[in-house]
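Q: I have 290 residues here and want to know how they pack in 3D. Can you give me a structure?
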Amino acid sequence: MSITNNRITMSADQFAKMAKIIYDRSGIHFPDSKKYIIESRLSQRVAELEMENFDQYIGYLTMGPYQTEEFQEMFNRITINETSFFRNDSQLDVFENQILPELLESRASKKRLRIWSAACSTGEEPFTLAMLIHRTLGVRLSDWRIEILGTDISEKAINVANEGRYTSYAVRTTTSLMKNRYFKQDGRDFVLDDTIRSMVNFEKHNLKDTMAAKRHGTWDVIFCRNVLIYFDDDMKAGVLSMFNNQLAADGTLFIGHSERIKTLTDQFTQLQIPQGFCYQKTDHVTTKGS
């Protein structure tokens, strides 16, 4: 058994096997430079299972009867769900004041709006979008069919989202006005208003699962922010292709401010909106501009 400072260590070969398991099942790429992350976050789990080394754990993940459940447990430990309500408010301003009004106008006859928050972690992003839509529509909300779906690969994160209860850290970028309007404080926690909670549904989803995405049909807006940075180019291209298939002809894709997709696909064209970091289908942009 290889132990350093009471921590079970991981060899280069073991890391390569673990990284492949993670990539094959989630699309998340861990380069060699991130070996310490996998080792430090999983050594305790290996010890908890009373295993002597990572070879035994790899066997448990790939051949054991509980491999599906264990992969979820492993994934919860190796990922950090760093998020908050109203994160990157300048981009959200673009959504609320430019993209949303155009969509509401173009869909005024059917009064149906569908938004997918992909890899939403513990739900702060889709709930933020629900608040913005609620604020925009006001009394007109009851006339509309608003469908917001938040998905994440982590079952633990989805459970938190469904509960609708958050720490003060999660609302650190939320104005006092929005906190007073949409949250009720319960001790140190902030409990989300039932109206906002009812506007969002959550489910576990792996971005590699294109068939599951197809079952949900077409979306008017897709948010997938600060997620592509964890993928290699092949996985990024696959996810973008899926988004292209599931996005309405005049729909909008929002990605993180540090993410670039120009070299990965010609299916999307970035809108020239400062701080927007948003894209529409190239065919639609070309038609609209002609």
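Q: Anything worth noting?
A: Residues 130 and 196 are 6 Å apart (CA to CA). The two ends are 67 Å apart (CA to CA).
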